[in-house]
Amino acid sequence: MVVSGLVIQLLSYPIGKFMAKVLPTTEYSFLGRTLTLNPGPFNVKEHVLITIMANCGAGTAYAVDIIVIQRVFYKQDFGFLANLLLILTTQLVGYGMAGILRRYLVYPAAMIWPSNLATVALFNTLHRREELAPGQWTRQKFFAAFAIGSFVYYWIPAYIFPAITALTLLCYIQPSNVVLSQMTGSQGLGLGVLSLDWNTITAFLGSPLITPWWAQVNIMLGFILIAWIMVPAAYYLDIWSAKMYPILTSKLFTTDGYYYDTLSILTPAKTLDEPMYKAYGPLRIATFFAISYGIGFAGLTAILTHTFLYHRKQIWAQWKEARGASQDIHYILMQAYKEVPEWWYLTLFCITVTLSIVTCEVWNYGLPWWCVLLAVGISALFSLPIGLIQAVTNQQPGLNILTEFIIGYILPGRPIANVTFKTYGYISMSHAMSFLGDLKLGQYMKIPPRIMFMTQLIGTFIAGFVNLITANWLLSTRPNICTPEGGHFTCLSANVFYSASVIWGVIAPERMFGSTSIYHPLMYFFIAGLLIPIPFYLISRQFPGTVLDQIHIPILLTSTGMMPPARPFQYANWLVVGFCFQYCVKRYYKDWYQRFNYVLSAALDSGVAVSALVIFFTLQIHEIDFPAWWGTNLNHCPLDKANFYGQVPSNKPKPAILQNNGNP
């Protein structure tokens, strides 16, 4: 359960209004300054700062997954201080980088950060009053109606009728047919699956009412090519003995189709035990998982080529000029305030990198100091090109595969070192993007930069403590948490995180993708990614103004990077909604689109977020389930989890060498 910044944005408005009415206006003197609990009416800038502070803590800190897999899967616990430093440093390194990249990713007008458009629309809806003719809907009335409707409706898919989150319409025809189940099941390729749950549709790609249509077309092309062409072709041609395993899962398998017992191949120090590994055999992964890795390889190198080809002149121009070219009108208006000097961000960056090294060296994360510097260097290298993508498309390619791959070669057989390196290398960039988006929001809403700096810093510290305290409480009080027996607490992201730690950390890329591995051909995707953007660039320059100008290879390749744990039906339904609003409504009902589109997005998100919070704290946390009936069964297509032969994987009996050794 995650309390998003949107919930805080929504709930803080009536609370702020109430406090402005009831708090005393008495003034106090302190250190020569006059202070008061109630300086006046609750205004939009106060509201923005509250929301930005909440955004710093929205979602679960990525480093929490390290803590979870250590305690649940690897049976380690480094203690509160080590965990706190890990969470704070992985977030604050990104903050330092964000400040340095402002001139490229915040100040220019072209860097719009689409996710902020719905946020700004909600602020304007709440704080501006409209005078319209009788019978016309104001934005406030529109927002209230759809937010309440979204709140009420979400009880149906979240509690009363969960089956409508994924109606496997085609699979109902013959659920005993394995191929039909794999192609049309919600846990398979999702053909024809209908979702009537806004939260399910937006869970991974965000609101389809915000992402520009040209970006959605690129996502659609990449999704169809990978999920509905490449994956089924490889699977049913039995490449990599694919038919032995389910078509889509993040689980790990033995060569004969059983689940892989990773604890059996670890030493007490949580490194690879070679004799045990040889006895248990090599690791195998599902076809979709394997192809996702290959496409991820290509996407990362394509980012570098694309950035050089399309953005080199822009980057160079802004490097030469202190504030860059084509500045946003919002930025020009912000000159009335004192800017945050870059040395503030540089100082914060240096301090947090130093603390990161101390954390990894003092506690046994297995990551030497130079590896920490390498991880931060990778994050810094990719932050600008990825920022250029996210600032205009609302999509963020990840660095998780690249960082796992590099450290897997440098320090093979060390899963905790691997995920720690990944977190510093990937999530530092991701947090930098989050901070940059908030800086752009502050620019839109004219928030003084120095107040923004302190707000983000304080919000990050508070979020770090809250994340850790919450994680410790859940890990200590919920039995079987993050396991199939854990009820509502199955921790999908932590399970994917754990699987990746085994693939890249325990087994290591040399065994997984080296010259003797069946997955070695995926390594050539690195080269393919470097080359693919070049012909599209040359053709678009030769024939400007054609549809090829809209082809964005990094988005096309990296769009499916969240599958698994995301499912194809979520992408398909997201694209359908996006087509309806970003193409049809925008084209044929332009006035309505300009007036209500972003308000509708904010209303639907707000209703779902508040409803999910109420359901969780009133029912789910107490394990009060709705009475069982057909609609509470999430999957009426059980064979979508089976292999080609209709067998659902199970645990493998341990070889004699493992039993005799006494390993778990």
Mean pLDDT: 84
- What share of residues are in beta strands? under 5%
Number of helices: 26
Assembly status: single chain
**N-to-C CA distance:** 32 Å
- Give helix % range: 55-70%
Shape: globular
Number of distinct beta strands:
6
Membrane topology: Multi-pass membrane protein
GO molecular function: oligopeptide transmembrane transporter activity
Family: Belongs to the oligopeptide OPT transporter family.
GO biological process, one term: protein transport
Describe the protein's architecture and organization.
It contains 26 helices and 6 strands. The chain has a two-stranded antiparallel sheet. By secondary structure, the chain is mostly helical. It has a domain at about 5-210 and about 340-515 and about 565-620. It has helices at about 5-20, 45-55, 65-70, 80-100, 100-105, 115-125, 140-155, 155-160, 180-185, 200, 215-235, 275-280, 285-320, 330-335, 340-360, 370-395, 400-410, 415-445, 450-475, 490-515, 525-530, 535-540, 555-560, 570-590, 590-620, 655-660, and strands spanning about 25-30, 35, 165-170, 195, 250-255, 285. The radius of gyration is 25 Å and the shape is globular. It is found in: Membrane. It is a multi-pass membrane protein.
Keyphrases for this structure?
664 residues, mainly alpha, protein transport, single chain, 60% helix, two-stranded antiparallel sheet, disordered C terminus, 26 helices, 6 strands
